[in-house]
User: Which sequence fits this backbone?
């Protein structure tokens, strides 16, 4: 097994192209190295992207944030502003593993590992985040909901890497939230995860909203029906009931040791209500 | 395949070693450098027995390659006591009987120190969340949490 630590995105892409199917990007390594240690994967070349300065930065431009793909969960939390603008994205990323795992794990790795239960992904989808992808043909941006196709299957090429996530500029009175259901309080994989991002108008009606679910289908889902339920309304109990129903209706889960289909469908509604309420309170708190 | 030549700092001392790509930092610490205070429990990031700091950041050394230590500053349990003088956390683990078999103890101490370096006055809840990635099969955690709270109070001069 070879180890490469490129200093630029172009070098990383060239190394990845040259390695072919044998090459693997490593960010925090908290999924990759477990897979190598347990003989699930045996890459010929590990391409460590943590030495690429551009990937280690969080920058703000005209209200939009660009979070480099090698920024860790611990660093996200310490950013002076990100947490107040995107509390849901930061809290979702901070649910990944322990303090030790947070010291290494990235949102890019969380998405590219290709698990339907990845915690930061529903929050990024709800946020309307775009993944910036670099490959031999240059750079492009893809909506986060279009990156994962099925467990371990991505729409991005083997010779491409995610360099950053772009979180769009926020109107006033906007916020987001993420919750997951697990049987314990820490260190577990989501049975269901839910992210909501919304914006309120001056009179308190909802003017924009996105809801995404994790662990209820072969990939994290954007629930477009939720937008129709919320936009143009004041979010009251009746609207929350409809939102819960829309979330349940979008689920196409499997039975596994963590939960049955029926349980996941029901919990999706409970979480959708709670998460929307938290996002609502946060948005109301921002004048 | 030639080995990687790695130059790093461990507990403040310049250290060099050679390693293969697939050797973790934990493998290197234990098998090459004789620093066996860092323990191996699961090897998959779940138990925290292998906790070390890298440039001040708490990580699992079983989930980091040895070659990644190049140019970094590593902190292990061996750097915690100053000669014969134990760190207040070590003293409090003893006086609160916060260990039984002891396999988890170095990981807990390194993790707890990383917390107190960042936050000298944590709440009990903060201590419990911070240490959620350190598993102990013997103590039931309560004595560990009390030892950390007590050490924090003493270090604040309370
Ligand atoms: C103890 C433990 C607890 C965990 N708990 C959780 C949890 O609660 N919730 C959760 O969602 N996950 C959890 N995880 C899984 C893991 O920590 C996360 O998925 C993490 O976000 C992965 O990020 P990473 O940077 O470590 O990825 P890596 O391991 O470096 O990479 C993961 C995959 O993505 C690819 N990749 C990484 N970065 C890029 C990029 N920029 N471009 C293209 N491909 C890339 C790699 O090639 C690899 O296939 C846990 C893991 C451990 C060990
Ligand atoms: S040995 Fe590293 S976390 Fe268990
Ligand atoms: S003292 Fe035995 S595992 Fe903690």
Assistant:
């Amino acid at each position: 097994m070879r180890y490469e630590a490129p200093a630029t995105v172009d070098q990383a892409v060239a190394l990845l192209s040259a390695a072919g199917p044998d090459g693997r990007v490593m960010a925090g390594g908290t999924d990759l190295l477990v897979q190598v240690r347990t003989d699930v994967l045996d890459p010929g070349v590990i391409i460590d992207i943590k030495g690429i300065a551009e990937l280690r930065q969080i920058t703000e431009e005209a209200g939009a944030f660009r979070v480099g793909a090698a920024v860790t969960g611990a660093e996200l939390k310490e950013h002076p502003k990100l947490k107040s603008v995107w509390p849901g994205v930061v809290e979702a990323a901070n649910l990944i593993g322990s303090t030790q795992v947070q010291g290494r794990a990235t949102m890019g790795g969380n998405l590219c590992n290709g698990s339907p239960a990845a915690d930061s992904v529903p929050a990024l989808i709800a946020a309307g985040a775009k993944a910036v992808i670099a490959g031999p043909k240059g750079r492009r941006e893809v909506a986060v909901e279009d990156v994962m196709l099925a467990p371990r299957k991505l729409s991005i090429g083997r010779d491409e890497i995610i360099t950053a996530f772009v979180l769009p500029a926020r109107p006033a009175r906007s916020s987001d939230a993420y919750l997951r259901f697990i049987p314990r309080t820490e260190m577990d994989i989501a049975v269901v995860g839910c992210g909501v991002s919304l914006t309120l108008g001056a009179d308190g009606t909802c003017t924009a909203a996105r809801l995404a679910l994790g662990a209820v289908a072969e990939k994290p889902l954007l629930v477009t029906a939720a937008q129709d339920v919320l936009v143009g309304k004041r979010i009251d109990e009746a609207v929350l009931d409809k939102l819960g129903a829309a979330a349940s209706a979008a689920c196409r889960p499997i039975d596994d040791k963590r939960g049955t289909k029926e349980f996941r469908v029901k919990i999706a509604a409970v979480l959708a209500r709670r998460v929307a309420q938290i996002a609502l309170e946060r948005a109301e708190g921002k004048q | 395949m030639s080995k990687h030549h790695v130059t790093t700092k461990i507990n403040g001392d310049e250290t060099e070693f050679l390693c293969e790509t697939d050797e973790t930092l934990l493998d290197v610490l234990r098998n090459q450098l004789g620093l066996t205070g860092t323990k191996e429990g699961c090897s998959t990031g779940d138990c925290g027995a292998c906790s070390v700091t890298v440039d001040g950041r708490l990580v699992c050394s079983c989930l980091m390659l040895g070659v990644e230590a190049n140019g970094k500053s590593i902190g292990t349990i061996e750097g915690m006591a100053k000669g014969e003088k134990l760190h207040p956390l070590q003293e409090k683990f003893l006086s609160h009987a916060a260990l039984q078999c002891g396999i988890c103890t170095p990981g807990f101490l390194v993790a707890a120190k990383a917390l107190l370096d960042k936050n000298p006055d944590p709440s009990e809840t903060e201590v419990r969340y911070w240490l959620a990635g350190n598993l102990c099969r013997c103590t039931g955690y309560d004595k560990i949490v009390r030892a950390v709270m007590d050490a924090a109070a003493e270090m604040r001069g309370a």
Chain A has a mean pLDDT of 96. Chain A touches chain B at residues 1-3, 28-30, 33-34, 36-38, 46, 48, 50, 72, 74, 97-101, 103-104, 185-187 (CB under 8 Å). The first strand of chain A starts at residue 2 and ends at 4.
